[in-house]
Amino acid sequence: MRSLFGFNKAEQAPGSPNISEKSTTDTPVADTSSEPAIPPVLECPGINGPLQEIKALSDDEQKVLEQIKSEIPELIKDLPPIDENVKAFVDESCIARYIRARKGVYEDTKKALRKTIEWRAATRPHALLPDAVEVENRTGKMYMNGFDKFSRPVIYMYNHRQNTKDADNQIRWVVYTLELCIRHMCPGVEKVTLAIDATNWGFSSSVSIGTAKKFLDILSNHYPERLGRAVVFMPPKLFVGFYSLVSPFIDPVTKAKVAFVNPKEPPTEQTDGGSSSPWIAIEECFDRNCLEKDCYGDWQFQYNHQVYWKSIEEEFAQAKAALLAKQ
Prior knowledge:
Blueprint (H helix, E strand, L loop, with lengths): L18 H4 L36 H12 L1 H4 L8 H6 L2 H10 L4 H18 L6 H4 L8 E6 L5 E6 L8 H17 L8 E6 L11 H14 L4 E7 L3 H10 L5 H4 L2 E4 L43 H21 L2
Parallel strand pairs: 2-3, 3-4, 4-5
Antiparallel strand pairs: 1-2
Helix pairs in contact: 2-5, 5-6, 8-9
């Protein structure tokens, strides 16, 4: 029986790059400190503060949920062979997120769910092998590490560490990271926080607008109601200009979750290039002791690829074993 969580070399996840070809990529590996490397924090440390409130469904929305629950067999019919993981994806909390994202409209919710089920059945994001995306994070450009003050997993993004140009594989790494965050969400948590360091942001190291749009499409269509906050640290004017280009493609609800931080100045409510994103204090979203120093926190974490990737491989093995145990 084929593993629900991984593929051997001859049976990779659909769309994955050839691993043997990938391994020859000459990409530098992040290891910039002679100090003992600090391992990443992937496991939920427990709830130590307030949680972001999950909006309750209205009576009408609850009726939509019950109707869709009764139609799950119809939602998954006529699809490529799908495994138990894809079926288990459509649970009550998942349906509720799609209902909130589609404003409680039954037909819109059903179509959106079907679209995501088709996408998951075809791409099997839960089955992405670490080897298939390892090259994407050799420089530590984007990764999950720790939790914010609302116990949401934090995804750090360092644009200036960009090291690849394969847009499809860049998106795979985004998807892998989102799936990793979801596996390690604390009880009662459904969203992630993005910590985006824009200090050294530049077009030369930025992903293309097309890739950015694809990322937003996947986030809004296949991971709705998963973004809690996107905090941009020290955005230069160039970044604000880029944001103004992509912001028209961002759903207004998602756009409202974007915030800017300037640790050197007190926050003020202002607009930048029509972005209308508020400036906030770090403490509104993070405990400084749990925020990486490269994002102006006090945590002396520095990305070390060998150490981080060892944790990723160990986590993958544990997650795979847990899924196989359920078969």
